[in-house]
Automatic annotation (TrEMBL):
EC number: 6.2.1.45
Xref: Pfam families: E1_4HB, E1_UFD, ThiF, UBA_E1_SCCH
Reactions performed catalytically: ATP + ubiquitin + [E1 ubiquitin-activating enzyme]-L-cysteine = AMP + diphosphate + S-ubiquitinyl-[E1 ubiquitin-activating enzyme]-L-cysteine
A molecular function GO annotation: ATP binding
InterPro entries listed in its UniProt record: E1_4HB, ThiF/MoeB/HesA, ThiF_NAD_FAD-bd, Ub-activating_enz_E1_C, UBA_E1_C_sf, UBA_E1_SCCH, Ubi_acti_E1_SCCH, Ubiquitin-activating_enz
Protein's recorded name: E1 ubiquitin-activating enzyme
Residue ranges annotated for the Ubiquitin-activating enzyme E1 C-terminal domain, each copy included: 673-804
């Protein structure tokens, strides 16, 4: 049924596990035999809208983004009609800030519009607080709301390209829950000067939240982790809101990364003259130009166990809260664990293209970020990557691995081996790993000893091309021929397995030459050769004289077919012989370790051939397996692990996060906070109340008791004093009626009741035992020690207790 290859996209009308029905006349087609790859095609959708004049009267079905506010969109539509009517009666002017007379006029206009609406009232009864608050604050400018609306509207402008689905047609959003007292906010005059302007840049915010609230923002001590796309937007928001602008306020921002060219289109604080500068320090300097009053402590430290000498007890205890602006789960989980440990609120968010999410973490009120872990990322099986790729992502990943092995690891191994061969060999566990390392090192050392030239590098690249894209494929086809069947008698080359075909080198093919040029230049750079060139004609002249080895089947080479079923390795005796011979050969070559320069992968330098090599290698492998080749930019994005970030999504997301900061500052109840999930492409906006922390209630899954019953991840056992082991045991007995039978710190066992030798430790201070067992020393910044304590009750039943902290200072 090869005729399917030449028909336009056909609609799928039905499908089962093993059949697909197409809306297609196949009466004249030949019979279907086997195989085939189907590609989903997104067909255009026609979207039509009514005019604004029609929609004002009949807004249609309004999207509900928060089911805690059911019916709110219709009420807001009526409120806005009241506002527009006020403007129409006042030459387009908005109501004055906190003018209660103007606000009542807007309420009256809204009620009148609803009553007179063609087709009957839109709502049964107008919720007067909505038009009233809308009028009171219509002139107020709040940075978070500006970020939200700016991001959404900008994305709608992009939709004129037809790439994404536009709004249909209204979407209303409010955050009244950010107000401490909705009733009081409707009567600002009753609060005296609390909502009166100060003649400052924050007067709009003061008009909504009040002077005392503004002072709270100014005195915040906040920690922001990351100064990339999200971090830049957060800092701008902090500056516009007046966060940390009082003498006692401060924003600590840390990021160990430096500014690269790919950052400039979405990390808006950075310009081309900032390239290679510190992200955190540059962002801080630019923000302080925006708002000279803001206090920022810019750091270049990665928040991790290795920097706990700086990010110590005193640092964490001195914070009011933390905002994450990170792009990886491991770092997020670490910061989250610290927030749980020190009971600090955390504002968490992330973006991926047009999608984003917001999560609020509040001590004792909500679950932590780590309480609902994301599923682990699926790893592509090794056999799929090396032998049976079927996606371009597979070929890109393998190309990236080949780059790391050939141009980073092997020259690094050469340096390490030439410095201390015995120690470097001992660092490797497996004998086959040692053999592979030595063979790679010998290739480089022998070439260097032979006064390697650029022509030698070109010849090497040509032989690599033949090995990877011709000989390797021919070996696979010899072991797994096209007519091979599996144990069940089904064709082996079916499903996702694409039968490959070897590539014959052709210097006239641009892709072939791209591989040779990049590979040769990368190898030349390892040797520091000055005669390297990227000119195709010069390289073609060298290629004409290269002797390429003929294909010879090596019967010892086996092909891994299934994950976990490794092909039978070479015998250990063979490895030993090769290792011994290679070491002798290396001993005869006198080369200093400095003779080699390993590459450091850098995706943003187009002159270093890194992405050129990976792009060529990935597309050649794709050609082997008849996988659609892709452009260099997509390969750069995947190989460089560039997380797609749009300025529109970033601006909107940080706006939603900063709204939650308003609520944190006013100590709002849990029902006021909102977690959010968004997709500007659809568009989708979904809000939900954060989940409370899980309670550990007895009996546990293994029948254990929880002490105290119902404790959560936020609860801690806090023992005050520089106590002995016996005093700690007494504390647990007196406070909770349990016996502390074992105490440990990390992987170090400090005390175990079942070990007779530990009886002598009962009268020793826990801090001394920690020093002796772990080698830790505590400067004045260390106030407490985290311990794990195992307990039993009077009947020797196991009891689980929260993490224990010995507060010894």
């Amino acid at each position: 049924m090869e005729e399917l290859n030449n028909v336009p996209p056909a609609r799928v009308t039905a499908r089962t596990q093993d059949t697909v029905t197409l809306d297609l006349d196949a009466s004249g087609f030949s019979a279907y035999v086997s195989g085939g790859v189907a590609t989903q095609v997104k067909m255009p959708t026609v979207v039509s809208h009514k005019s604004l004049a029609e929609r004002v009267v009949d807004p249609g079905e309004l999207a509900v983004t928060d089911f805690a506010k059911f019916g709110r969109p219709q009420q807001l539509h009526v409120a806005f009609q009241g506002l527009h009517a006020f403007q129409a009666a006042n030459a387009g002017a908005l109501p004055e800030l906190n003018n209660e007379e103007h606000a009542e006029a807007v309420v009256e206009y809204a009620v009148a519009w609803n009553a007179a609406r063609a087709g009957g009232p839109l709502v049964d009864e107008v919720d007067a607080k909505l038009p009233r608050l809308l009028a009171l604050h219509a002139r107020a400018e709040l940075s978070p709301m500006a970020s939200i609306m700016g991001g959404i509207v900008a994305q709608e402008v992009v939709k004129v390209t037809g790439k994404f689905t536009p709004f249909d047609q209204y979407m209303y959003f409010d955050a009244l829950e950010a107000l401490a007292d909705v009733e009081a906010a409707q009567k600002p005059s009753a609060a005296g000067d609390e909502y009166a302007p100060l003649g400052s840049r924050y007067d709009g915010q003061i008009a909504v939240f009040g002077r005392s609230f503004q002072a709270q923002l100014a005195n915040l001590k906040y920690f922001m982790v990351g100064a990339g796309a999200l971090g830049c937007e957060f800092l701008k928001g902090f500056a516009m809101m007046g966060v940390a602008t009082a003498p006692d306020g401060v924003i600590h921002v840390t990021d160990d990364d430096h500014i690269a060219p790919s950052n400039l289109n979405r990390q808006f604080l950075f310009r081309s003259h900032h390239l290679n500068c510190s992200k955190s320090k540059t962002a801080a300097a630019v923000i302080q130009e925006m708002n000279p009053d803001i206090n920022i402590n810019a750091l270049e430290l990665r928040v991790s166990p290795n920097t706990e000498d700086y990010f110590n007890d005193a640092f964490w205890m001195g914070l009011d809260g933390v905002t994450n602006a990170l792009d990886n789960i491991k770092a997020r989980l670490y910061v989250d664990s610290k927030c749980v440990s020190y009971k600090k609120s955390l504002l968490e968010s992330g973006t991926l293209g047009t999608k984003s999410n917001v999560q609020v973490v509040i001590p004792h009120m909500t679950e932590s970020y780590g309480a609902s872990p994301d599923p682990p990322e699926k790893e592509t099986p090794s056999c799929t990557l090396h032998n049976f790729p079927y996606l371009i992502e597979h070929t890109i990943q393998l190309a990236r691995e080949e780059f790391e092995t050939t141009f980073v690891k092997t020259p690094s191994d050469a340096i390490a081996y030439l410095k201390d061969g015995e120690a470097h060999l001992e660092s490797m566990r497996h004998i086959h790993e040692k053999r592979m390392m030595l063979e790679g090192v010998h290739s480089l050392v022998a070439a260097k000893a032979g006064n390697v030239t650029f022509a030698d590098c070109v010849a090497w690249a040509r032989c690599e091309f033949e090995r990877l894209y011709n000989h390797r494929i021919r070996t696979i086809l010899l072991r797994l021929p096209a007519d091979k069947v599996d144990e069940a008698g089904a064709p082996f080359w079916s499903g996702t397995k694409r039968i490959p075909s070897p590539i014959e080198f052709d210097a006239a093919d641009p892709l072939h030459m791209a591989y040779i040029v990049s590979a040769a230049n990368l190898r030349a750079a390892i040797f520091g050769l000055a005669d390297a060139t990227a000119e195709p004609d010069a390289i073609k002249a060298i290629l004409a004289d290269v002797a390429v080895p003929e294909f010879v089947d090596d019967a010892s080479v086996q092909i891994q077919v299934k994950e976990g079923e490794e092909p039978e390795p070479a015998k250990a005796d063979d490895d030993e012989d090769v290792i011994e011979a290679t070491r002798k050969a290396l001993d005869e070559l006198s080369i200093p370790p400095v003779a080699f320069t390993p590459h450091v992968f850098e995706k943003d330098d187009d002159s270093n051939h890194h992405i050129d090599y990976i792009a060529a290698a990935a597309n050649l492998r794709a050609r082997n397996y008849n996988i659609g080749e892709v452009e260099r930019l997509k390969i750069k994005m995947i190989a460089g692990r560039i997380i797609p970030a749009l300025a529109t999504t970033t601006a909107m997301t940080t706006g939603f996060v900063l709204l939650e900061l308003y609520k944190l500052v006013r100590k709002a109840p849990i029902e006021a906070f909102k977690n959010g999930f968004f997709n500007l492409a659809l568009p989708l906006f979904a809000f939900s109340e954060p989940l409370p922390p899980k309670k550990n209630t007895s009996p546990g899954p293994a029948g254990q008791r929880y002490i105290p019953d119902g404790y959560t991840e936020w609860d801690q056992m806090e023992i005050v004093g520089d106590l002995t082991v016996q005093e700690v045991k007494d504390w647990f007995t007196e406070k909770h009626g349990v016996n502390a039978s074992m105490i440990s710190r990390g992987s170090s066992l400090l005390y175990a009741e079942f070990m007779p030798a530990h009886a002598s430790r009962l009268e020793r201070k826990v801090t001394d035992l920690v020093r002796d067992s772990t080698g830790e020393e505590f400067d004045e910044s260390v106030k407490r020690l985290e311990l794990v304590v195992s307990c039993e009750d009077d009947e020797d039943n196991e009891c689980d207790v929260p993490v224990t902290y010995l507060i010894f200072r």
